[in-house]
Amino acid sequence: MNLPFEPQRQTRDYQASDAAHHIHAFVDQKALNAEGPRVMVRGEGLYLWDSEGKRYLDGMSGLWCTQLGYGRKDLTAAAAAQMDQLAYYNMFFHTTHPAVIELSELLFSLLPGHYSHVIYTNSGSEANEVLIRTVRRYWQVLGKPQKKIMIGRWNGYHGSTLAASALGGMKFMHEMGGLIPDVAHIDEPYWYAQGGELTPAEFGRRCALQLEEKILELGAQNVAGFIAEPFQGAGGMIFPPESYWPEIQRICRQYDVLLCADEVIGGFGRTGEWFAHQYFGFEPDTLSIAKGLTSGYLPMGGLVLSKRMAEALVERGGVFAHGLTYSGHPVAAAVALANLKALRDEGIVRQVKDDTGPYLHALLHEVFGNHPLIGEIQGTGLLAALQFVEDKGTRKRFANENDLAWQCRTFGFEEGVIIRSTLGRMIMAPALVASRAELDELVDKTRIAVDRTARIAGKL
Ligand code: PXG
What is the pTM assigned to this prediction? Predict the structure, then answer.
């Protein structure tokens, strides 16, 4: 157990100093300064405490990353031991070290056999920056340097650095002045909002065919890769219809376009499979990873490459002019190794698939299946979204769905549960170690928050 944190200062004192020095993520800073952020001081298992001593069940694994929950002593011990042994070294100038080698051995033992190599980064955004360079370099090596264009999706999220945000399809991020050349976008497969009269299967195929149309419009000889999250995370935890991925894979293969899966959220057991593309049944050429790789205890990401790509780059590519000071950082690698060992040896991924995942979804269907505010329950494993709807028959959404969802999230905080709001969807992605009792508490407190929201929306 962590010792209870004794705040040395008053909450408003922390808040004033926070306001004096920080620009927070995705927020109107002036408005946040007026309100004052919650000051989180301690974590244990699925629970967090703030500086006022209030306890929260963290239904979002931090930012979709604390697979093992908070306060794992095996991870802190691994970090401390590695810091004593070799706190820093790198993979430049013909050197390497055991921590990163052992991590990669374990990582590739968990991945399907057609992946062989990885380039480590510090984050998911960087993994996608590296992706663009690696994919373009691959085509250069194969004698097709004109294959440069990356196709992403509207409302996709691939990170906040310049190129990663350009690959993503968050228009409000593009408007901040961050576009790069040779990137195109197609629509997202969000049937509930955009499917109209089509069945999910028809809509999924239609969205996938947009990729073919875009490739033909741009010229297949110019298109390097297609990047997508197996399911959209930050964009609203949106699962594509079943018809989507097989068709996308067919198109990528047919036009010799690399299929790049962003597994930053989906990876490391979230769906009950080790990687989300395994749940959806397709075979990407590259995987961008981060978050759950270390359970968020230290920053680490990476770009995983298929044997085919790695073989071309290694055997025929010569020098790959790329490198980060902290690629494969020994302490992050030691923590990632301990994290993956725990996920494997404690049977946590299997437990999500066979026990806690089905349990959570049965519970959600029981509680929200006929709820007047909820039009759809999506997800699998320890991953779920509740869609707010004004009219279930026509799938008409509320004009103010964003405000309603934010309100629901605020009610959640009041009730002592952290859930995420995106547009009109409430998202849950608790730590993979969640017990049935903790999932009961998560759903129960979420129900109270949703009921309170339904009253405001005139639905209860
Ligand atoms: N790809 C995907 C699919 C992501 O979800 C990134 C890349 C970028 O990773 P880094 O490590 O650079 O942040 C992400 C990050 C949210 C939320 O509230 C989601 C992310 C980050 C912060 C908040 O949904 N995803």
Answer: 0.98
